[in-house]
Amino acid sequence: MNFKSDNAAGVCPEIMKALEVANIGFATSYGEDDYSKQLAKKVAEIFEHEVTIFLTSTGTAANCLSLSAIAPAYGTIYCHTNAHINTDECGAPELLIGAKLTVLGGAAGKINVQDLENQILFDADIRPHASKPAAISVTQLTEGGTVYSLQELQNIHACAQRHGLYVHMDGARCANALVSLGCTSAQMTWKSGIDVLSFGATKNGAMMAEMVVIFNQELAKDFDYRHKRAGQLLSKTRFEAAQFLAYFEHDLWLKNARHSNAMAQQLAAHMTAVPGVSIDHEIQGNELFVNMPSALADYLLQKGAHFYSWGPGVYRLVTSWATTAEEVAAFGKFVAGFKSASY
Amino acid sequence: MNFKSDNAAGVCPEIMKALEVANIGFATSYGEDDYSKQLAKKVAEIFEHEVTIFLTSTGTAANCLSLSAIAPAYGTIYCHTNAHINTDECGAPELLIGAKLTVLGGAAGKINVQDLENQILFDADIRPHASKPAAISVTQLTEGGTVYSLQELQNIHACAQRHGLYVHMDGARCANALVSLGCTSAQMTWKSGIDVLSFGATKNGAMMAEMVVIFNQELAKDFDYRHKRAGQLLSKTRFEAAQFLAYFEHDLWLKNARHSNAMAQQLAAHMTAVPGVSIDHEIQGNELFVNMPSALADYLLQKGAHFYSWGPGVYRLVTSWATTAEEVAAFGKFVAGFKSASY
Amino acid sequence: MNFKSDNAAGVCPEIMKALEVANIGFATSYGEDDYSKQLAKKVAEIFEHEVTIFLTSTGTAANCLSLSAIAPAYGTIYCHTNAHINTDECGAPELLIGAKLTVLGGAAGKINVQDLENQILFDADIRPHASKPAAISVTQLTEGGTVYSLQELQNIHACAQRHGLYVHMDGARCANALVSLGCTSAQMTWKSGIDVLSFGATKNGAMMAEMVVIFNQELAKDFDYRHKRAGQLLSKTRFEAAQFLAYFEHDLWLKNARHSNAMAQQLAAHMTAVPGVSIDHEIQGNELFVNMPSALADYLLQKGAHFYSWGPGVYRLVTSWATTAEEVAAFGKFVAGFKSASY
Amino acid sequence: MNFKSDNAAGVCPEIMKALEVANIGFATSYGEDDYSKQLAKKVAEIFEHEVTIFLTSTGTAANCLSLSAIAPAYGTIYCHTNAHINTDECGAPELLIGAKLTVLGGAAGKINVQDLENQILFDADIRPHASKPAAISVTQLTEGGTVYSLQELQNIHACAQRHGLYVHMDGARCANALVSLGCTSAQMTWKSGIDVLSFGATKNGAMMAEMVVIFNQELAKDFDYRHKRAGQLLSKTRFEAAQFLAYFEHDLWLKNARHSNAMAQQLAAHMTAVPGVSIDHEIQGNELFVNMPSALADYLLQKGAHFYSWGPGVYRLVTSWATTAEEVAAFGKFVAGFKSASY
Question: Which of A23, B29, C250, D163 could make a disulfide contact with B235, Cβ separation 3.0–4.6 Å?
Fold first, then answer.
């Protein structure tokens, strides 16, 4: 019963198998292998758009490199105050982009568009004392476990267009968001105004496979230099590309995401059956932020469930491709057991 | 007959097997897994010294992070003009360290110690107009394919000590150097004054496994922040650590290095049998820099051998754990064939 | 009637005279002149403490250099959301320090200490995902025109000490704050836990004279390199030092500050006599944030008064050493005139 | 007899007077004053070209900001190994530009164009492992005290054009070079392919007045942000602009430069009259690099002359606007006196 993080899960078997196959023989290094070339075509197909892609070993690198293509060092990037780039990347954006982050509030982990508009106007007005308004970064799944609707993305895009800003999507869990929205990859990204996407696969079954997907081809110019300079050009690139090829084969990525989303719904059903327990925000992906009595949390942890405390009285539970219905059922029994014992 | 790079080889079977084993079940992410903990102990054992280690996905990242611990952003790092950090890392040192590189000449890819001494004195004299002399970086195997002797390393260390500088070793091919010297890991590193080592495994049979080994424990303070901030803290760290554990098991790393060094010697024997062909520097590792007529080079390439041109009339051939005696023999036949045809 | 900024005033005559005197003859450059040496002693006297000083041409440079001594590039600096370093320095902190800013709210332009405490605890807890809690920056006068009391400074210092952080004071208008508090320079700085001070003179009568004052001498080590590297080591340093020597002579700096503070009080008296006009925060220095009808603002601007709009319905008026009682009286007449005309 | 540096001289009287005049009354800060506006027009006139200008307080800042407009952070800037940006700016280029410097040799302080060509080709060939070839920086007067001829500048420009690079001129002593060449400002700069110029006035009679002159207007876009972010946007800009206006009035700058160049020639005549004394390079500006016996150097220093040792047996003497014919004559007597005493 490990609900600590989708990172605690291993690599799904299809991807592990693909690594073995890719290991046969010699392959030119630094992106000149056949796997890398094949992947570029596959991603274009999936997104129904010309793309340039770059592979990275972490989401932090994918985010910061993506943003470095759309914000100059003297620019600022608007993001939610809870955005991963603001809270969990140890200043990597300031290092790898140079640019400043300007944080905004907003309910359910989503940027409030009116606040965004006001802040951009304010910053532009005092040029050059404030950094140049350059880009907006949205996280999909948000850090609140919610999903921006296509309309919400388009509202942000409209604001970006009014002021000449680019839009980035941190898609560490974009597969979960995509199956939640039930739309196409194109609809959730470039058709909603996304210029650059950090496309994560690690949390959804890969070993270490993150990707920058550039839709706006002007932004791809010289990106190879940025990528190399950040220490992200791996030598044996076939082993990154092969992970992604397996990830896309037979829609494995969507299958995995649907599974983990479904597991999250089942978990939620067990939790909310307990009086005094509530869940923050609508569950739209594979993350639950649960308000529960610490006695219940302690009881569950003691029973062998793993999850993190996420502030006073709040706990985060995350499901993954590897979460089984059996685990969830077993967890449900403990929850129910506590319920009957306590009330 | 692929002699392009040791990066063109795949992953050796022992390491691939280890990845499969490591994939079983859940494991806490971000270095809190059992593999990572076990590895820290193993590395201390190998180097007979207290160490702090950090894993990275590229050698560029390992080098720059290592150096960031020993050179402040206002410092300078002395290195050979051909050093990988100077020629092949696209400004990553300037980005990830902040510091300036000051380049020095020297025969056979090795820093000339008298020039080093003079440059440090000059820079210190005009403080603060020149950057602060902070660190020296040596590459072992050098970029010329040669090996610094223990005495040469100690001479550099003595210079460093006279002026209060730290010493870093770029060990992308350190296993090849180690077996060439026939000394212990301790002797080639901390006993010769190395403070921080970039320890590479990718070129010698791993998939993507590089490591920063810090001997001077004061330098390890806060390194976790540097590592995370550079986008190098992977989530599923077990898959990095497991590669290294297999790499060290039964001295696989030394076995692989001995093999590739031996293959390089055999290759050299074939080449030098041809009149008009010579080899730059003594071959001390798995790299050959061969001066040969372009007609010969073209002939070999046409016969299916792969290697890079390395300047006018110079060609680089690299062997690896995956190079077979059969390949080398086949290559030797082509070399011999060209000889008889041409003269 | 220029109340746009204390930067719109010129150089006070005593300082202009000092520049002429300093111009006689040759003087060694880069801080080796007699003026620079004399200044170092003078500042130590004023602050009753050993100090190391560095002169800069802008407050932005003074702030960022000060902070670079107390926050590593992987650290974070806590400041008020309205802090000049956050809103008006175009990402200079991110560039010159490397570090990330973490913004906090708080009434009257002052950091809320409980929020500060919570944020530090949160960031430390998720190490190394969040940047290292490193420093706190307070502005004195705050950006709200208010003054931190000695007790308030000490509360921040206590929080800093609990977590091992340094404290920086942005003293662009510290003379105004000092005379407002009526304490000694020592009391407002190192006796209240300030490690490094950005000491501004430009706004209070100098031409271009800002200074970093380091109280904690460990932090002064290598600062000369930081200073040079940021492009702030002027060649003809005598002309910077001479400004400060004149600024301190016969307490000119305190005299100027008392004058501008008094002018601000008089301005305020005129404004608040008008019904419907109010002033944000207590006036403790030389800045007024006035809520007034736009009709009144327009009327005053039309009459030749200069001041800035500072958001909807809010206007900022700033006095300086050069503001005359006559100007203020003339302004008062217009204010009174508008009053009788409108009501 | 102060020949240490042109920085040891004070401010010439015309400029000091201009500062006093500029001090009258209020003036809008941050470049919105009338002096700044007038200066922009004047510089366009002098260079017979549309220009955008930015003022800085140091040459280091002017150089690095200039280069930041023509080299991306992932780029490299080619310069002579003795270039001020390489040897005397403490890593400011790496900080303020981000980019890497690639150093080249060349006689008399001038870049060897064939070496330049080869290095650019090499770097481009291994893209993206080497930084992107982005810009070339030449110093005029060179660090050897020599002057690039117009033809030499055009040869560098031709190389730049072949590879799509920009060209920067570090003109810390460009007035001395200009009067030496006897050409127009336009000829020495944009007509010879210079895109951006660091135009220094401090060494030639100003107090602290350096300027970035951008000829290629595409490069001026967003430069205001770069300028502010580097801590170089002074508040009381009128005092920078007024220095330059006086500097250009009645060709004061050219008059000063002609004077110091003439003084250098006279100094040289005295020195070379001594057997055993020689001068490195042709004297084309206001700097002499003199090879002389240390006995002579010691004798002169003891007689009250001031100059710097510049390596074993080499001494640098610099003249300025403030050097008088009397000083030079007095120095000449000492030189002659030593001669008769010693031989």
Answer: B29
B286 lies in some domain: yes
Cα distance from C279 to chain B (closest Cα, Å)?
44
Chain B residues inside the 8 Å CB shell of D100: 91, 94, 101
**What tokens does D285 get?**
């500006």
B262 and B184 within one domain:
no
Tell whether B67 is covered by a domain. yes
Residue A260's alpha-carbon distances to A116, A181, A283, C260, D126, in angstroms, are 32, 15, 12, 65, 44
Count: domains in chain B: 2
Better pLDDT: D192 or B343: D192
Indicate the length of chain D as a whole number.
Answer: 343
The yes-or-no verdict on residue C107 having pLDDT over 70 is yes
Q: CA-based angle C98:C104:C110, to the nearest 5?
A: 110
The segments of chain B whose pLDDT lies below 50 read 343
Please tell me if residue A85 touches chain B, with a CB cutoff of 8 Å.
no
Is residue D4 situated within a structural domain?
Answer: no
Residue A47 pLDDT: 98
Look up the pTM and report it.
0.97
* Chain C partners (3+ C-beta pairs within 8 A): A, B, D
Give the rounded percent of residues in chain D with a pLDDT score beyond 70: 99
How large is the average pLDDT for residues C130-141?
98
Give Cα separations from D100 to A71, B187, B301, D71 (angstroms): 20, 34, 35, 9
CATH, residue D310: 3.90.1150.10
> Of D311, D324, D321, D320, which Cα lies nearest the Cα of D280?
D311
Give me Rg for the CA atoms of chain C. 21
Please tell me the distance in Å from D99's CA to the nearest CA on chain B. Answer: 7
Same domain flag for D247 and D306: no
| Residue-range definition of the domain harbouring residue B271 | 253-342
> Which of A63, A94, A104 is the mutation pick for testing C, counting most C CBs within 10 A?
A94
Residues D213 and D318 placed together within one structural domain of the fold: no
Strand partners, B132: B75
What are A14-28's pLDDT values in tens digits? 999 999 999 999 999
Output the CA–CA distances (angstroms, integers) from residue D62 to D78, D168, D233, in the order listed: 17, 11, 12
Of D98, D129, D229, the CB nearest to A228: D129
Q: Both A326 and A213 in a single domain?
A: no
D7 assigned to some structural domain: no
**C275 and C143 together in one domain:** no
